Amino acid sequence: MLSGDAPLPVDDRGVAYGDGLFETVLVRDGRPCLWDYHMARLQAGCRRLGIPMPERDVLDRLPAQAGVGLLVLKLILTRGSGGRGYLPPEAPEPHLRWQCLPFTANERNWREGVRIRHCVLRLAIQPALAGLKHLNRLENVLARREWSDPGTAEGLLCDQGGRMVEATCMNVFWRRRGVLETPGLDRCGVAGTLRQALLERLAITEVEADPRILGEAEALWLGNSVQGVWPVIRLDDTEGHPLVEWQLTDIHREFQNVAQPLLGYPALPLTGTS
């Protein structure tokens, strides 16, 4: 099993076919945030793809190697080499690699909120891969190429049926008619670890939703396990024209303040409005 900085061979199936999984973990002074959620998702992905899961004690030792401070640990697990074309080997020997890099959260986005837009690209519907953080992320790459304006923080993605799924690298949440909602991810999309933790702590309903319902939302947020939760203050169409705008209120802060401590981030002060 390859690890650390060892180079992957040219015939590695992750390099050739995206045949593998990855996790991106926020680490504070050697202590990983939402670690059990990351390990559960990795194990679920290994089970579904038929890739042997590395020994848990091997994985558990990695965050401590990240060092002091706030860092991001990226784990990459591929099926390894071998097989014949797309046909995988009967007894795969996985390759595991990792990298630790310093990280600084975008606190301004927490405080002031972000502007986002709709993407033209539509995600393919593939239930066999839905929820997994697999290595084939070309759809996200193409979607992210749709804008270069630094004032646009993210792009919303729908599936081929026009249903909301996620942003290019974050999950989506909103409150409508007093109810917290998030897109169901049984057809496509990545089931984020912060999303899972919030589903267990708050009454969030998984729904099939046309993006037009966001015009009825009292609040909209994006979140992931590295950046935390960003409130959305403006949603644009695919050409950058504004569709919906929101003023930051206590509704935004209360949701953020459930999520932020899960990552060791500070709570945000209430605005005094609701």
- The amount of helix comes to 10-25%
Number of helices: 7
Q: Strand count, sense and closure of the main sheet?
A: 9 strands, mixed
Number-wise, the strands total 13
Order of helices and strands: HEEHHEEHEHEEEEHEEEEH
Under CATH at level 1, the class of the largest domain stands as Alpha Beta
Q: Low-confidence stretches at least 5 residues in length (pLDDT < 50)?
A: none
Strand percentage: 25-35%
Oligomer: single chain
Say which CATH homologous superfamily of the largest domain is assigned: D-amino Acid Aminotransferase, subunit A, domain 2
Radius of gyration: 19 Å
**Structural shape:** globular
Number of domains: 2
**Average pLDDT figure:** 96
CA distance, first residue to last residue: 53 Å
CATH architecture of the largest domain: Alpha-Beta Barrel
Write the CATH fold name of the largest domain: D-amino Acid Aminotransferase, Chain A, domain 2
User: What is the SS-derived class?
Assistant: alpha+beta
Describe the structure.
Homodimer. Its EC number is 4.1.3.38. This is Aminodeoxychorismate lyase. The chain contains 7 helices and 13 strands. With 274 residues, the chain is of the alpha+beta class. The strands form 2 sheets. Strands 5, 6, 7, 8, 9, 10, 11, 12 and 13 form a 9-stranded mixed sheet that branches. Strand 12 and strand 13 form a beta hairpin.
Give me some keywords for this one.
D-amino Acid Aminotransferase, Chain A, domain 2; nine-stranded mixed sheet; Aminotrans_IV; 31% strand; EC 4.1.3.38; 274 residues; alpha+beta; D-amino Acid Aminotransferase, Chain A, domain 1; pyridoxal phosphate; folate biosynthesis
